[in-house]
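Hey all, sorry for the wall of text incoming. These are the two entities for the joint prediction.
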Amino acid sequence: MASSIRPPVIPPPLPESWTPPAAPSKSISPLLQRRLIPAGPAYLAHVQRTTHGLSFEEHDKRIAEERALKEGAQSNGNSEDDLGVGDEPESLGLLALDPKEWKKQDHYAVLGLSHLRWRATDEQIKIAHRKKVLKHHPDKKAGAAGETNDDAFFKCISKAMDVLTNPEKRRQYDSVDFGLQDIEDDVPTPAQVTKAADPNKAFFEFYEPVFEREARFSRKEPVPMLGSYDDGKAEVEGFYDFWYNFDSWRSFEYLDKEVNEGSDNRDDKRYTEKKNKTERARRKKEDTQRLRLIVDQALSVDPRIKRIKQEEKEAREAKKKNKGGAVAAGGGAKVKAEEEKRKEEEEAKRKEEEEKVAKADAKKAKAAAANAAKKARRAARQAEEAAATGGGLAS
Amino acid sequence: MAVIESVPNGSALAPIEVSSVPTVVGINFGNSYASIAVLNKEGQAECIANEDGERQIACAIAFQGEEIYIGNQAKQQLVKNAENTITGFRNLLGKKFSEIKQDAAATSAPVIQHPDRADEPAYCVKVLQPAPSPLPSSATPKTATPTASRLATPRSEPVPALRFLTPADATTLFLRSLLQSAEDFLGRKADGAVISVPAWFAPAQLIALRAAAADAGIAVLQLLDDAGAAAVAATSAPTAEDLPADRTQLVVDLGASGLALTLLRVSDGLFSALAASYTPDASGDALDARLLRFFAKDFTKKTKVPLAIGDATDRRAEARLLLALEHTKRTVSASAGAATCSVESLKDGLDYTGTINRLRFDLEARPIYTAVVSAASDLLSSVDLDWLHVDELVYVGGSACLPGLDDALAACYSEDAATPFKAGTVAGGGPGDPTTLLARGCALQAGLLARIDDEAVRAAFAQGTETPTVAKTLGALFPAADGESEGEWVPLVHAGTPLPARRMVSVALDGPAGFELWEADECIKTERVKPPKAEPLSDEEDEEPAEVEEEEEVEVKEKVVGRETLLGAARLPGEGKREIEVAVVVGKDGSVEVSAGEPGGAREVVVKV
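and here's what came out:
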């Protein structure tokens, strides 16, 4: 777009008597031919206009289009777009981090990715790292107040980058992400759901983020999500089925205790390794239990289960009603047969229980007998010993 | 989480080039010096140094034994190996032997008639050719004596030979080395190059240059006029943004071998040459000759050893002094202080160290400066223009760096004219640096051409197009109420503007407004006025009052606008305080359309001619 120039003069106020005078000439002086030097961007524009017969407005439009196209292509590349990394200001606590304690730092917060966390792509991590480095590189702070550990935070940034760009290390860190611990512990209780004003709504509100969070650990993709209240029986069952058989990649190597650096004692090392291994296993077990508990609790307050049961019941009743009087006689017989069957079953159960009780009784008796025998033996031994010592003294 | 497959070391691909800056080279190929420029990441042109760290690469090729030296190293060879050193080959490109002036004793390899080709100039140099390689060992018959060695016989000594080079061969050799330097800098193969050529190059010479460049492996995008390259570089400089979009530019190209002056009309980025001249007498070489004589005299004075310039016996001393002068001239250009010139063992084993201050230097260079000024004045008068019309001066070439030249021209050009010395962009490789300007202009042009994918548009760059231009300035007159003046004149489309053209002016208005569209002639009014009287000295002791009497009248020139024809008039839309954008579009056939409206908004046509 051609820019307009601003002349240095300000037009004076128009005299009131002024009327546009009639022009005596209807054309400008004859044109002169001159050769243009084929150079410069303006010549390119001139040639484009003349070869394609474009007017100035059309040409402006075309240039604007081309520019938009180019900018679009550039942002598709990676030049300006930061892929939604954004800028997160660092809290004072974050800046005061000790690089020696890097194992305890929240790497995502250090890189300013705490809003993305495990969702951050490698590209986003790269961009975030570059942004942080540009801001916190020691060279940039050389002139500022002479703090001694100026590059402490820079070291933290490099450590964070180290961890997050290595797929294996990142998996380990993601398993224990410190920034999510507080949220992870904050699991809704069934009581919270049932006591809410609208339990149906509350269930989804409370549990949806929980399952979304946990889904990241799944080895299987896609992970079924909580869904909505109107889901059918198959979906709900599928959901719980998946979550009860959840296959998690979560592991706890990140929390391992370091083998004491100073000692090359093999035993020491092995001991720590062994301890770490058991610790990992324990944590994994705990995690599985934790998830199971969550699913259990969710199942217990899931309004859909109630609804489905209700629906099934209604369906059955409706069926019953439909059949109703038409097959009353046959029905009576059927009911009788069913009742008998149930009775039989009950009897069998009772028998089983009785047997069990009897077995237990027998066991108890046996144990008591054994105990008695033991006691008798001990008493006899004591008596013997006493006699022996007595004899010794006497002799 | 997806586990990324590990990539073995060394198999990583080169990073994909996302940069939109094309890899192109701009080559300023002068007769004495050349320079190369490339586009940097930001798309700005940058003059680069070759492997020797030189931005000003001497156009010289020297043959010494088996070695070939190109550039400034070759120039050093002029001292001891002058007969095998080739210089000044560019101007001979595409010329016949009979056309070449056989001038006085050359300081480098002489131009001779090519022994095989008729009427073709050539240089004859002595080289050492590697000995022919031995016969392949398999040629030995199987029945040969068993003691015969199977190893190849060692190479014998290289044999001296004569080698004939045409100017085109020399150009190819030289351009190839320039391209190599640029590609080494870029780290990639160059997509194309723009080479600058002087305006007076004949078509045959252009063809010869194109062929030589093609032989050197250069994809020539365009052979651009020196003036065009200078204008492109000068208009792309950040300082040019403050200048009016329509202006007259005087390109002063004072190179080593001649003075080229070009008067350009710049209309919103479009360049057309109003006039051009070439003066071979005013040149850096002429300046060198004067300085040589000065220093030779100084040497003789100091050491009592006669040193005659232009004498065959002292040719070596002359060559030494000439090389040292290069440094002296650069020092004078860069700083205001005195410059030294020192040569070890100049003659008879005597060292020489001399200094020259600015004043003395300018005194020596005065004839060259005067020649430039008179050539420029002649050029202006040849197209009926005055120095007042020159809005901008652009300096090109090594000798144009001398501040004395600008001082000499400053006596002529108007105070409002922009020069790189005024803007302070000459020193330190600024945008107005005359030594790198052409190469940078070529690089910018190459960058522009490399992006064009439209064949029809690209073809238009091969040769300048004939375009109709406005003969007389069109402007708007805002009439005034008071009788003092007729109103305010705002020029819209200047004389010489190529068509079609569009100009937009935004004016701040208060109350009802109207304007008249006039065709006008911008001319220079010369008045003879008496200069303001000097303050009489307060003291009565001054007893010489007579001199004041003969005060001469001084010519004062002024730009005036003579309105000639009224083309139309109209009221401008809107009321009260407002900003109005007036757009004038002059079509190819000379039709004029003036429209006005709010800035950025729709405009309504108010006048149509």
